[in-house]
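Intended use. Records like the one below are meant for learning the mapping from a protein sequence to its folded structure. Do not use them to infer anything beyond what is encoded.
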Amino acid sequence: MKTTELFNDGGHCWLMLGRDADKPEKVIDTNQYVVRFNNEAVILDPGGIELFAPMLDSIVKLMPLEQVKYLFASHQDPDIISSLGLWDQVLENACLYSPWLWEGFIRHFGMERIRFMPIADPGGVLNLNGLELRFIPAHYLHSSGNFHVYDAKAKILFSGDIGAALEPVDSPMFVDDFTAHTAKMRYFHQRWMPSEQAKHDWIQRVRLLDIDMMCPQHGRIFRGEQVTQFLDWFEQLPVGQLNE
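Structure written out for the chain above:
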């Protein structure tokens, strides 16, 4: 599993863990993110059960495990949070922030010691030892209870499945040619995003944010003007229909 530093401002950093060449062939590739501030850390969408071992190995090489105080699950899918039962065994005094709607489902993955912190529909804030991380509503994109995470200091938006592309593990980390990359995103977004209204609500909300980097849970990361390019492209893309 590769670790890529996305942002570092002294005690404040963003890391992406992914591109795991040793994962099972038919398991889709996922991006896991770690945000650390003043020696506390949160793992955003920590991944499926099959990725727990390489994730744990990577984390302990980066920081003492005791610094991981929080987990965040954008929604209930297994590629996002089915590793929960294993994290529950190794983390002490940790909390999981996730949509209130999915608590009863997420607990099926196993959660005895980790405390569930429900996020209300309008969103909320995680105070990471002095750093404010905002939970941005992204309902029905694609899950009916869904959130993204925005860091105003780093100007980074973790965008979950929005912006996703399913690509091989040896793909580049960052988008280079945006126009060419749209071909890798189109089917995913049209098939998995069910609501035009939800799409436009999200775009309107996100255009108000100052974003240098948009980081999806699958595929490549968008930087600079590519963020606006993505919003423009997504805005005109018809979703919620089956194109055969």
